[in-house]
């Protein structure tokens, strides 16, 4: 069992013929992901060979879905074209669109998110500026390394790609049901709360790791949700305990202003909701180890 991405998911890649798209399509195939085609209007009707696997290229997401039954799109297109690619996926009503692209203008993200809401939110958007989603041993949509951990019963939701990888590695002897990298931009399609709800409802997830970072109030809102709705144990980590105020750190959304959005404030909110919070990633892994043991 996994959330949103399973062994039965059929994946297409928007931008499959580009350098990043083709590289990661090859990696996804090697991980056992059921990639069924790509989208590039200029190369529609051609095929691309990935080490003996021939994948067709379609003119649009809608055509790809009609021909292959695809239900997931992974988007590897340059920032200037990302809004159009996401809107195309929304128009086709594909259930899941994973937007890997970094550097998408915040206004573009706001536009395609508002468009999705207006259309009834039939497409779940993960990202932008994220590593994607991986259900180890079943499917991998994005750039999360596939060989860090086997499948297991821990769920993970994270703003940070590298911290996703570290926690997956440190807890590899327990394994993960699904790891979701939601991205660190100011506007993202899937939040901590969305993932927490899905993991709470997943019978094969026993405990949850939640990784946040300084800036904004997403973690405080997640703490309120956990207190009211989550009965499974949650272990947390907030990146940026040593970040100076007023300085953007790594992600576009990771900036603190005065006392708002600090790591200490987020830690306090999570602990008040019963979440065990580590001061370092390794301490966070140790806390989860205690839960799972």
Automatic annotation (TrEMBL):
Annotated active site residues, numbered on this chain, are 251
Recorded hits in Gene3D superfamilies, A to Z, give:
NAD(P)-binding Rossmann-like Domain, Succinyl-CoA synthetase domains
Going by the UniProt record, its keywords in alphabetical order are: Ligase, Nucleotide-binding, Tricarboxylic acid cycle
UniProt xrefs under HAMAP family: Succ_CoA_alpha (MF_01988)
According to the lineage, what is the superkingdom? Bacteria
Subunit info here reads:
Heterotetramer of two alpha and two beta subunits.
Similarity comment: family membership? Belongs to the succinate/malate CoA ligase alpha subunit family.
Function recorded in the entry: Succinyl-CoA synthetase functions in the citric acid cycle (TCA), coupling the hydrolysis of succinyl-CoA to the synthesis of either ATP or GTP and thus represents the only step of substrate-level phosphorylation in the TCA. The alpha subunit of the enzyme binds the substrates coenzyme A and phosphate, while succinate binding and nucleotide specificity is provided by the beta subunit.
Protein's UniProt name: Succinate--CoA ligase [ADP-forming] subunit alpha
Q: Where in the numbering of this chain does the CoA-binding domain appear?
A: 4-104
Binding sites annotated in the UniProt record for substrate: 165
Question: In the Enzyme Commission scheme, what number(s) does this protein have?
Answer: 6.2.1.5
Q: Name one GO molecular function term.
A: succinate-CoA ligase (ADP-forming) activity
Describe the reaction catalysed, as an equation: succinate + ATP + CoA = succinyl-CoA + ADP + phosphate; GTP + succinate + CoA = succinyl-CoA + GDP + phosphate
The keyword Membrane is annotated on this UniProt entry = no
Its pathway, per UniProt, is: Carbohydrate metabolism; tricarboxylic acid cycle; succinate from succinyl-CoA (ligase route): step 1/1
- Residue sites binding CoA per the record: 17-20, 43, 100-102
């Amino acid at each position: 069992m996994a959330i949103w991405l399973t062994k039965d998911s059929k994946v297409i890649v928007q931008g499959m013929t580009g350098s990043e798209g083709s590289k990661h399509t090859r990696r996804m195939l090697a991980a056992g992901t059921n990639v069924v085609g790509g989208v590039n209007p200029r190369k529609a009707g051609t095929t691309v060979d990935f080490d003996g696997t021939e994948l067709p290229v379609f003119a649009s997401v809608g055509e790809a879905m009609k021909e292959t039954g695809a239900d997931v799109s992974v988007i590897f297109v340059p920032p200037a074209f990302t809004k159009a690619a996401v809107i195309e996926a929304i128009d086709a009503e594909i259930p899941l669109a994973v937007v890997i692209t970094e550097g998408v203008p915040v206004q573009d993200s706001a536009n395609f998110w508002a468009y999705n809401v207006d259309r009834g939110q039939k497409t779940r958007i993960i990202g932008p500026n994220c590593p994607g989603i991986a259900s180890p041993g079943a499917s991998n949509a994005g750039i999360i390394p596939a060989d860090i951990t086997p499948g297991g019963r821990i769920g993970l939701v994270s703003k940070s790609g590298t911290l996703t990888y570290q926690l997956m590695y440190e807890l590899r002897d327990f394994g993960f049901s699904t790891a979701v990298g939601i991205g660190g931009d100011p506007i993202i399609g899937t939040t901590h709360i969305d993932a927490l709800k899905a993991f709470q409802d997943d019978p094969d997830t026993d405990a949850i790791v939640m990784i946040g970072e300084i800036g904004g109030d997403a973690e405080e809102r997640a703490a309120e949700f956990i207190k009211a709705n989550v009965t499974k144990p949650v272990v947390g980590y907030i990146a940026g305990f040593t970040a100076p105020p007023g300085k953007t750190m790594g992600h576009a959304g990771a900036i603190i202003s005065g006392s708002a959005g600090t790591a200490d404030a987020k830690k306090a909110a999570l602990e008040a909701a019963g979440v065990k919070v580590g001061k370092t990633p390794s301490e966070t892994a140790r806390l989860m180890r205690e839960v799972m043991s």
